[in-house]
Design a protein that fits this description.
Jelly Rolls; 7 strands; 4-stranded antiparallel beta sheet; 4 helices; mainly beta; 3-stranded antiparallel beta sheet
Length: 183
């Protein structure tokens, strides 16, 4: 029977690693916000994909402030996942700001060249409120984020045609896991 192999780690190296880990530097969050306005009486009872602004098109996460502030490059990233997707409606009239009045189903997806379209959030039942958090499946976004371009979109099944313009604001929070050891 062979004796156990022991390795020594210099106390200073161990201390740095533990202090970085304790500070949460190996993970950080980034937020992407975009919105679109659906004109009054434009809804149909069928599925449609609203045109969000530039916030969800041709995303390059490596150029976001969160990546820059944390000194992170794409090669440092182990994993990127969606933490939350929040959808808010606004009509300019508080008594009409109820998401359950307008929507039957919402599906958010991500796509990139060479990668299949993946659902990153979905909601089928809506509260009597102006905002809702979508249900989030476990999807690894790193292959999408490291592709030449990444796009986030939504498919919406409306409930009724609104009599007023409806603004949809989407806030996506992602969790980025960084490899501190460089391996």
């Amino acid at each position: 029977m062979m004796p156990p192999v022991r390795t020594q780690v210099h106390p200073a190296v161990l201390g740095i690693f533990l202090s970085l880990s304790a500070c949460g530097i190996d993970q950080f969050e980034d937020t992407i916000v975009d919105e679109t306005t659906i004109p009054a009486a434009s809804f149909t009872q069928s599925l449609f994909s609203p045109a969000f602004g530039a916030g969800f098109s041709n995303l390059d996460l490596s150029k976001s402030k969160s990546f820059e502030n944390n000194g992170v490059t794409p090669s440092d990233v182990d994993s990127i996942t969606v933490k939350t997707i929040r959808l808010e409606v606004s009509t300019g009239s508080a008594n009409l700001d109820r998401i359950d009045v307008y929507l039957n189903k919402v599906t958010f997806w991500v796509e990139a060249p060479g990668q299949p379209r993946q659902v990153i959030g979905e909601k089928l039942v809506f509260p009597m409120a102006a905002a809702v958090d979508l249900d989030i499946p476990k999807v690894e976004l790193k292959p999408y984020a490291t592709a030449a371009s990444m796009t986030v979109g939504a498919d919406i099944t409306p409930k009724t045609q609104p009599a007023v313009n409806v603004k949809l604001k989407s806030t996506i929070t992602i969790q980025v896991d960084v490899n501190l050891a460089g391996i």
